[in-house]
Design goal:
Helix content is 34%, strand content 9%. With 136 residues, the protein is α+β, with helices and mostly antiparallel strands.
Length: 136
Amino acid sequence: MTFDLKSGSYKPYMKTNNKLLYVHQQSNHPPALLKNIPLNINKRLINISSSKDVFDAAIALYQKALEESGYDHKLTYHPEAQQTTRNKRKRKRNMTWYNPPWNSNLKNQPRKSFCALSTNASPRSTRYTRFSTDIR
């Protein structure tokens, strides 16, 4: 970010030789991740831009990089996205989660078959299998 202390404004900063690269939309990644890439870029640009004029001046390079990566999302300024509230910090539980690696080429995802096996073997069914590391 670039800060202007006299005017109290701030804007995104990028090195001169920097080339923006994002994960291509047709890549082998989970669909939820691919869907959220343009939304997170948009949210980040809003948070590091002090006004709509600053945002509009900065989005050209980001919009071009998104289009080169196969996304059709248009970056827009929503000032309400800048105001986020943080949740109260909660105690972390000692648990180990098993999430198999993602592969879009598989017809049957290992996570679904693993969860089906574990729910048949245990009395209660859960969406994801969790292994507790608490020893009592």
